[in-house]
Amino acid sequence: MGNVIHLKALAKINLGLDVIGTREDGYHLVRMIMQTIDLFDWVTVRKSNQEGIALETNLNFLPTDEHNIAYQAAMLLKEDFPHIGGVELHIHKCIPVAAGMAGGSTDAAAVLYGMNQLYHLGIPMDRLMEYGLILGADVPYCLFRGTALAEGIGEKLTRLSPMPDCYILIAKPPVSVSTKLVYQSLDALKEPPHPPIDAQIQDLKVQDLTSLARHMGNVLEGVTVPMHPQITQIKEIMENQGAIAAMMSGSGPTVFGIFSEEAKAYEAKGKIRDSGLAKQVYVTRPYNHKERNR
Fold first, then answer.
1. Which residues are part of the catalytic machinery?
2. pLDDT tens digits, residue range 29-58?
């Protein structure tokens, strides 16, 4: 390992997303099935002779100071471990930004994990996840990875049976969505449909991909879809091209479709590109938490 570590910061999708209440502090209580996928940013953590934290990314519109959650992750550990010297961070973004795929949270998780390894801090995973929660509700899951039930504000995680192997088509339209605004707007909806999370947990137990996909649901679609109708158009293309089901991930606007056949996934990818509805379109697969590469 030496003075540098290179890490895959994995994106996530929500196979099911329900909001079941609100805490007194305004945070929403959720019940979600989370899944990491093999779409990732490259995060490099390097020891430096210079004091402080230096962050670079391949996207010039992203902040490279304390307004970046990955930078905040490095600050957090430096505050508690004064012997840590200078840190250089480089993030090569591939996960779409502001897309409902935990792109920022997973970068922060990679920094926490990488600094723990590089500086031999010896922080156990449960404590590392507590650091993650200080940064954001999705960060603990981005450390946990795999197929999981997330409850509370997203920090209470239970390992589930792994998602059956399949092909996942990702399409991000050229719009950005504020997660905070979406959750605030959800409160104004009357009786939004609640996805069958328990049915999905059973589908995972018996490894029934078709039933799992058909039970997918995201209560936040009721807020985001009316603001961005292209989400519905992308879903329709995916389903017309053979997706078992298609849905918005997180607060959006990214849409993903579940395919049992690789050829159909790539045909749908071409149709979406040709439509001009999304420029960032990828075919990927579920990423199991036991796979060896971080």
1. 12, 138
2. 999 999 999 999 999 999 999 889 999 999
